[in-house]
Amino acid sequence: MASASVPVDLEEMECSVCHEFFTDPKLLPCGHCLCRHCLLSWLDSQSQAAALCPLCRCAIVECAQQPPKSFEDIAENFPTDLAMASLVDAHRLLLKDHQCCVCDDVAATSLCLQCGDMLCAQCTQAHKKLTMSKHHSVEALSSLMAETIASNRRGSCTVHAGKETELFCPKHGESICQLCAMSRHRSCPEVTGLDEKMVEARTVLAELVTTLTAGEKNLDCRIRQLDEHIKQTEEQAQVAISEIEAVCARLHKSIKECEDNLTYLVDSSRSYITEVASNKKTYLSQRKGQLTTHKRVVERVQDARSPDTVTNMTPKLKKRVVNLDPGLALMTGANLKFCSRLTFMIDPKAVIIIEDGLSKLGQITDVPVDVTVENQEIEFRFHDNHGGNIVLSRNQQTAKRASGIKEGIVLSSDPMVTNMLYEVRIVDIDDSKRTDYTMFGVLLGSPADVTLPETSEDCHSALVVSSNCVYIQANLELTKKFGALNDVREGSRVGVALDAQRNLHVFMDGKDLGTVPMTTPGSHSGKYYALFDLGFRTPQVRALPCRQMI
């Protein structure tokens, strides 16, 4: 029977650029695929440094190239997703007319998963009886999925048509047939059975699934915490806004009351002064009228020709005018005294105090919130100060040696935290170099204050280990404690951690290989930075999230 397989949506088999089924799908760093020719056209339509995956907008070219590589080189460096290619081929096979490959114009009902031949019912029975095919898996087309076909089909030799791949050549990293083993790969050492290699590969894949599943759960937990944090922030903001509105409403009310009181005070003073002034004005207008009337009388007498009139009226008018007091000499007290002038003044000091109080009415306090999971992780990035032969990715989590074997030192961007493991995964390995040169350790002091030497063994402010020795401030000490580092391979993890007593722990693939006491002067104070030397065997590494040392 066919083995179980994971269903794949049709959309996953379609290129996001051409929207057709994949042709030679290239696996991008983000995990999405593009057809090889679509990848080339996509890179050509954008600048190399700004080329982003059309699905997730992650960078397609992680490391800046020195010198810049051609688009062909970039596409060639990305692995072909053979599993996706097999799925697409299987789906295309199912889309074909279901015609028996033996009989003419007879509908096929079954498919041989090994041969890839469509068979009618009669040919199916014959196929199951033939010596060469009686052990093949033949499935009904009505219930067959592309995933089942892809997961059960044996590979075909790319050199000898029609021959199945049965062996694996580690030197060339490819599956081969028996004829290849006897010809092209005759001198290759350690050619093994493909089934044996499959068992090994499936073990690695199972570990990768476990690692990725744990990572997914870890990130899901963090995302949920961030969602809850965002929700709480929204709720806290609404509460704060309500408080602000309430306080401001109260202040508006107080200010309005203050405005009304001051306005009333001014209006009252104005009304009083205006009323008093108006009364005085009325009184004075009446007095003026009396003076004007008597002036007319005096002028009439003055114009009179009769002596009797003049002599008789003059003393009487004089007495009357004196009593009228035209010079206002007798008008004293309330009859003449005015009210005070209306004067209103805002106290500027009081305004400043109020404004200062309003500016301090409410403040945002930035309180850091840790988003943690059961096993706390710290993001590990490489420092800007690194060897002159090193190229860092944009996120500074991948380091690559451009050429040569020197000037390959990289350091952690932040000081090490006690009991946290600072670890890198070896992305590439060069077994042609000396086997004892996987070197890493710690830098004593800030990277910003250090001029890095060509190799870590010459670094006078570092403690560095390899498989057969320890360099303490460039002084060599032989040891076999870390001999396991000779077994470092592509995909291995190596790292360092400091315990509370400032002992340096050396790790490989999660196993604590031993410790080195930090006996150098000043080793119990100051800061330490993880150090990795990409010289010799390890031309490329990727920083992993720091985790608690177990």
TrEMBL record:
Residues 379-546 form the NHR domain. One of its GO terms (biological process) is protein monoubiquitination. Pfam families: Neuralized (PF07177), zf-RING_UBOX (PF13445). Residues 15-57 form the RING-type domain. SUPFAM superfamilies: B-box zinc-binding domain (SSF57845), RING/U-box (SSF57850). The keyword Zinc applies. GO terms for molecular function: ubiquitin protein ligase activity; zinc ion binding. SMART domains: RING. Keywords: Coiled coil, Metal-binding, Zinc, Zinc-finger. The keyword Iron-sulfur does not apply. InterPro entries: B30.2/SPRY_sf, NHR_dom, TRIM45/56/19-like, Znf-RING_euk, Znf_B-box, Znf_RING, Znf_RING/FYVE/PHD, Znf_RING_CS. Residues 216-261 form a coiled coil. PROSITE patterns: NHR, ZF_BBOX, ZF_RING_1, ZF_RING_2. Residues 95-140, 152-201 form the B box-type domain. Transmembrane segments: none annotated. This is Uncharacterized protein. It comes from Littorina saxatilis. The lineage of its organism: Eukaryota, Metazoa, Spiralia, Lophotrochozoa, Mollusca.
